[in-house]
Every structure is written in structure tokens, then in C-alpha cells.
User: Fold these one by one.
Assistant:
Number 1:
Amino acid sequence: MIAHYGYADGSGEYYLIVDTDRCDGCGRCVEVCPNDILELAPDDYGKTVVRVKDEFVNSIGYICPACKRRDERCESVCEHAALSYTW
Amino acid sequence: MLVAGVDVGSLTVKAVILKDGEVAATTTLITGDDAATAARTAINEALKSLAERGVSATLDSLDYVVATGVGRKEVAFAHEVKTDVRCDAVGARHLFPSVRTVVDIGAESCKVIRLSKKGRVEDFTANDKCASGTGMFLDTLAKVIGVGVEKLGELSLKAKEPAKISSMCVVFAESEVISYIHKKTPVEDIIAGVHESISNRIFGMMNRVGIEKDVALVGGVARNVGVVRALEARAGENILVPEAPQIAGALGAALIAAKACEGGA
């Protein structure tokens, strides 16, 4: 399953995209997130995968683009290329 | 076997009761400021209509209850909570077995879900950050136009030349609508423009997850035929709309409850 967390508004599209088939729930991305917006939780089919915490889904556009300049990002540390983003 | 699904939405609570796998009763009522009480009342109302037909049961005697919707975590008496994405998928698939893309336009959110051939969720996106593409967008603009929200659909079908609403934001769209009113643009054309604006927004989300046939539209806004037509024109696809689109999520929850019961028995 592909899960789009985020939104589109007048200024652009801000989605953090998780491919739950690729995610093995290792949690590396959760550890490197400086803003602690990620968590591991069972999806609707019972597989434990990474997701964006509910309280951050609508502020991704203000939080996540700042990580572009960091070397260690949720998406860059993922060995399975399970994460991607749209900004 | 008596199971229930309850969908606690931002504006309304929907309850569906299944008796041996068949829909036995449904209710829709305003959520208000106490989601837990509203959910309880919705199920009790449905049970009351069931009792009139000779099936007596109480909330406690239900075999299984699944809660969904934005307020699902408030429903303490539910045996299980499921996301609205999953429940919409199951509900829409039950109503239309051929469906691969489910669009849900609710009062304060919209969702697009793409399903596999077998009905598994393959991709989804949701928006509950901004009012564009939601029922609130319609509600707000209907007030400005001075037409009841339930009349929008029918009126818009009479439009000759839909007005162009370029703002995605409802606050700015409102001032655009007011300008059209000042310019004496026919009200049907303004309404059709509003519907086009919503369908543009939804179409953008549909493209993000990818459109697969058949497409179904659920959620309260699906009762507005103008939105359905506008979205059909925009997407170039025929859109399936169930008879009671607002209860699709609750129906999905009830079906999941029924399945959980079968599994446990």
C-alpha cells in the first residue's frame, strides 16, 4: 500500500509518501527525524510500518522541507527506499 | 448475529446495524460537541428502529462494534477502531464490487483511495487541512449565494456557462462569488463554477493516487448531483454513487465487524 501523508494547498503539494510493502518497520527513519513526527504502528492490514503521527499530518509543509539540507533524512537512511516526498 | 459500524464524522455520526450480514438499520445525526455521546445515540436510535420491527437488542448485547471516522478514538464502547480509509474501501466495494477508485467527500475532509482488483487499499491520500474540496466549501458558498445547500445540485444543472472560480481557498472563493453576484451573473452559473472548483481540487488528488475504473463517490457531498457531474466531466469517467453515500464508511465498519465476528466464532 502507498500511503500519502500530507496535503496540497495553494502553495504546493506536501506529501510524505510511504510504500508499506517496502517498509520493514526497522525504525531508522523514526530515529533520525529531528522533529519526531514519525512513529511505527500497525497499518489496517496489521503490518507494523512507519507513519506520520496524526498531529503532524497537516503541518508537514512547515516542518519537513527544512530537512532537505540534512544528510540523514528519513528518506535517505531508508535501505528499502520506502519513503519519498513531493517538495 | 448483530453487529454495528459507527462512523463519527466532523459534522454527522452515521450508524449501520447488520443482522446476519444484511443491513437492518441505519441512522445519521449531527455529531455536536460530544462525539462519544453522539455515537452512542446513533446506535441506540438504530436499535430503536430495529425494535419496532421486533428485533430487540441493546448496545451491550451487540456482538461486535467497529468505530471509524475522525472521532473514532472517542468511541469507548467499540471493540475495534479502523481508519476511514479502510472502512470507505470496504463499504464502497460492497456497494459496487467493480470499484477501484473511491472518492469520499465529507463535511470537512476529502479522500481518494485506489484499490487493487481484490479490493485491498493500494494507495490513498486525504485532505483535512483546508476546506477546498469539502462540504464546508459548498456550505459556506451556498450561504453567500443565498441558496440552501441541498438545492445546489439541481440548480447547477441549469447552468449555461459556469463562472470561473480560480481560488482554491474558500475565503478568497467567497469574494470571487460575491463579485459574480454583483456582476449579476446567473446564480446557476455561479453554483456550477463552485462545483467545478471542487472537482478540480478532487481531480488533483485523484491524479496523485492514479485513477482506475470504476470510480465511486461516497460521503455526504455525493448527494449533490452537480458535484458528481462536474467530477465526471473533469475526470472523463462515469462515477458510481450509492443511494445513501453518506453511510458508506459506517457500512464498511459494520462489514468489518461482521467479519471479525465470523472469524472469532
Number 2:
Amino acid sequence: MPPSSSLRGVTQLLRETVQPSFACRRLGEVQQTAYLSTSAPRFASVPKKKGLTAAPKKGTKTLNVKKGRKQSGGDTGKKPAVGERKAMRKAVVLSNNNALEVSSLKNLDNENVLDAEIAGKVYGIPDDAIDALRAVDAFKPKQGWKLFRRPAVVVRKEAMQLAQLIKEVESGSEGAKKTVRRIITGERMSGKSTLVLQGLLMAHLRNWVVINLPEAQDLVNAHTEYAPLQGSQPMQYTQDTYTANLLSQILKANKQIADLPVTKEHSLPQPLPPKATLRSLIDIGVATPESSWSVFAALWEELTQPGRPPIMFAIDGLAHIMRNSEYLSADVKPIHAFDLTIVRQFVDYLSGAKSLPNGGIIFAATSGSNSPTVDALNFSLQCAAARQFAPEKMPRWNPYTNLDMRVMEALKDVDTLPLKGLTKEEARALMEYYAESGMLRAKVDDGLVGERWALAGMGNIGELERTTVRMRV
Amino acid sequence: MVFIFGFHFDDQRLVKASLETFYGIGPKVSQRIMARHYIHPWAKVGSLKNNTLMNLTADLTSMKIENDLRREVQENIRRLKDMGAYRGRRHAMGLPVRGQNTRTQIATARRLNKIERGGSGRVQM
């Protein structure tokens, strides 16, 4: 190809390639309809994904850790209803349909409950007693009742001591009945609350009047209403809602006293109907919480009339009522727990300042897991233990601790009921019961009992339950 | 709905929190008021008896709270400003009053130091 023709060819080519672009540009200014093109969707802004935001600008704060801020697309689950979670937390489950029925399990009843032969064996709780114990909140949610077909207790050595005390009270002659006062002490999970339950159970089976303050903390943590008691000197305070609830519990748990007649005149805010029974008396207190304390006092007076049954009065978590409560007096000073009427009623009998004419047991349990440090209580318990077991080794008061003299005075001669571990025989009976319930899948022999008994810190019953039925390896 | 001191509160609200909505009542004062009327710290407004509510409102009426207290504070500041005091000027300028440095960190002063301190309240002054 000659060079001139080749040059011409190049210019021709150039003209062809350049001109259409000019044309296009000019056309673009006037063109109304778009040609087929894929660029529009390709370059369109991408729709934002939920939860993703643009990168923050320089200098803005990005870390946002505040709780409770609403997040888009966050949790849409249903919120629990008011009180639902608390009800769940406080629920007491007393049976397990998956556990086996123990055919050899006998029930405790009115006759055998004080026998010596029940010692060291496991016994079931009869149904009406279960209802009564449930009514007085003697079962606690964290105890192991939900593991077995129905509630049962091992009758340990200390329970037999308690049965002995009940016998002593019952055998007292009319007019000289004994009032037994005991404080249960022991390690954490050694079965103190369960022993209170057993005490209430025995008393209920023996047709005693059963009154239980299930959690001392509830009395003093200022979560219920309070009001000054008119005419009291020094000032005392009533807890009307709590007392009304206590009265309804007493009525539910002690059906045998409901139809007893009211024998004395009482000054109540509301008049009693003619031929009133204790049920109608209690009903007034339940219906009108303002009058609940005067009703309780009247009920107590009725129960201490001659011929009425003995009383079992128990409390759990004693340390809470041995110090100032969370309530405040009108001049913004803390109210001592002893100035609350229910607590005072209990402490008067625990200290021995008053005694029950028909006899009875005043029973207090300390708590291993929920108890404030009260120096006066600890020192009094040490003294009591020394008085009972080693009188030559009385502890000395540490002058650098702050001792509450009211507490010291109240506890100066009260006895303790120290709770040790189970014996190996008791542990064996209990483990056989576990195995028969199908909750322990092992052959219960001396080797296993010895091993688990030792693992449980020499038979601490709570630890034993933990190492045998709760723990899954 | 319960009325305390002319304002209504939800039944489920704590008495303590309700009292502390008033200008001039904080944790200490609410504790004192509640102790005086034997109201426990976790009481809900709905659980108060009519008698207690009336006494409570009477008690609050006798106290210097809300607009009375706002007015007093504002008058104190205005007095400083009117007599031409340095503190009054600083209040008017929204700057720290007590000799703090002002190069940085005066957000609190900017927020609070003003003649109309405390705002105009839930009921207009």
C-alpha cells in the first residue's frame, strides 16, 4: 500500500471514530427518550441494609454502650407480665413425675412421729401436712423437693432431739407446761431450714398450733407497710399487711383451732359477731389489715387460755431481726427490729421474758447463706454453746466490737441446737431413698456411702444431695 | 391516678420517685418526708391511703418547693446582678462564678449559670 493512501485511510478512520461521539454528545442534550442501558441500575444507590449505617464521619463518637437504647430490629419477644418473674422465682415445686414412687416409704403420722424407732429412716410427709406446711411457707424454693415424687424427710439425730422436746412439753402437767426455746445453728446447707420444717411438721401432726415466720428478712427490709402502734411506750410499730397475711396463713395451717369459741372480751376496731369462733376473729384481721395487729394480739390471748393446744412458733434467718431494721421512725432514726410488734412478740418468748401457759416451742434458725453479721448474736451463740458443752471455756467479749445490748439481753440464756453432719447410717438411709426414687443410679454400698459422705464434708446433708442427686458427671 | 400536691401520678410509681419529681426534693428530703408519714421506701403511690395523701399534700404545701424555691433562687441571682457584683455578671454571661478556669470544661456552667435558673417549672411561674 502506498503511503499517501495509507495516510488517507487513517484520517478516514479517525473521522469515523471521533464524529459519532460528537454526535452523541450533541444528541444527548436534546434527546428525550433513553436508549437501552444497564448503567442506571448499576450506578443507582444501593438500598441500605437494616442495622447498617454509613461509616461515621471523622470526629464523631462511635462507641455507644448505653443500655436500654432501642435497637432497630431488636428483640421483639413478649415481655414477662407484672409479677411473673417473681412468681417463677418463688415457686415451690413439691413433686417430680419422672421420679419413681418409693413403695417402701411410710408416712409420718400422729402416733409414730415421736417414736424412737423412726430414727435414722426416711419418712414421707402426709398430704394434709404438706398443705399446712405449704400454707406457712415452710418449703423453700431452693430446696430439693422438686427432685422426688413426693416430699419426704430423713429423721436425723437432731430431729429426734426435737421430738424429745415435744414430748417433754406434752407431758408437762396442766398449769406447769414448759416453754422450750432453741436456736438452730450449723454450717451452710446443714439442714437448718429443713429442721424447722420438721419441727413444724411434728407439731402439726401432734395438733399443735403452728405459726411460722418463713423469712426474717421480709420483716425488717422495709418492703411492707408499717404504722406506729397507738399508746405504746417506747414506740412500737405494726406491719399491717404482713400481719394480715400471717393471720391468713395461721388459719390455713391450723384448721383444728378454727372452730374454737372466743372466750374473752377483746377491744377490736370492729365488733365480733355473737358466738364468735377464732375463724371469725381471724377473718376480721385478714379483711381489714388496719386491725390485724389487735386481732393477732386477741388471737394470741385466746390461744393462751387454759385447755388450748401448745404453740410452735418458728422463724428462719434469725440474724436479720437482731439489729436495726430498714424502717425509719418519724424523726428519721432507724427502728430497732425489736420495736416491730411481730418481732417483739417472738423475741419476748425467745428470751424467756414471757412463757406460754399451754407450753410450746419457740424455734429460731440462723441462716448460712443469707445472714448479716451481728456481733451480739454471734457472741451470744458462742456463749450458749460454751454453756451447754464446755462451761470451763466461756468466750470473752471483744471490747472492740459493737455489741447491741438489747440483743445481748434477749439472748442471755437461750439454748442452741447445733446441727452437725448426718451419721453414716442416716446418710445410707437417705441414699437408699435416692436410689429407690431412681435419682441415684448406683449400687448403694458401704464404699459409695463412705465416699459421698466424706465428699459432703462429713455428711453435710445439702452437700450430700449435691454430690449424689444434683450433680451429673 | 393519684394526686399529690396538685400533680397526678401513676398508681404503680414509687412514692419516693414521685416526690423527687418536685423541684427542691431530693433523696434526703424525700426520705425525711416519707419517714414523717410512715411510708416505707418501696411504697407505690397507689397504696397510699387518702388520709396519708392529704397529710402529705399539706406537708408539701408548707414547704418551699417548686416555683417558690425557683423564685427564691432566681431572686438571689438577680440581686447579685442588679448590684453589679462579679458573681451576678458571671451568671448573666453563663460562665463559672467561683473562679474556675474557662479555657475548657465549662459545660456545667453554661447549662446552669443563668438568671432564669431552674427553668419556668411544670406550672408556668
